[in-house]
Description:
It contains 3 helices and 5 strands.
Amino acid sequence: MSEFSWPARVYWEDTDGGGIVYYANYLRFLERSRTEWLRSLGFLQREMAREPGVLFAVVSLSVDYRRPARLDDELIITCEPRADGAVCMRFAQRILRAAETEPLVSAEVRVACVDARTLRPTKLPDPLRAALK
């Protein structure tokens, strides 16, 4: 599957007192990019929770913080998904300042598909698995 890109802007609430993005808030940008990737394929998480009854849970995360994003920066958040077995997906993700090529943040995120009722691991839905190819 090819890389997906989603634009965002840094707002005051994303930053610390110095106008620099607080480290944990980068995770929000990464999460939103993965959600928008799903949405771009026609998968809405609220609907997926009802039918086929699945949720997604981050099971591992590795983040490299390279340079800071600052208040009012325009960002591009990317995700490159791939299947990782029957239950999991892996996302190579980057956060870049718009019009730059060097990432501010690089991350590897592993997400498991879980049953919405039991929270036990379950297979990725077939339509989603097909979209990962």
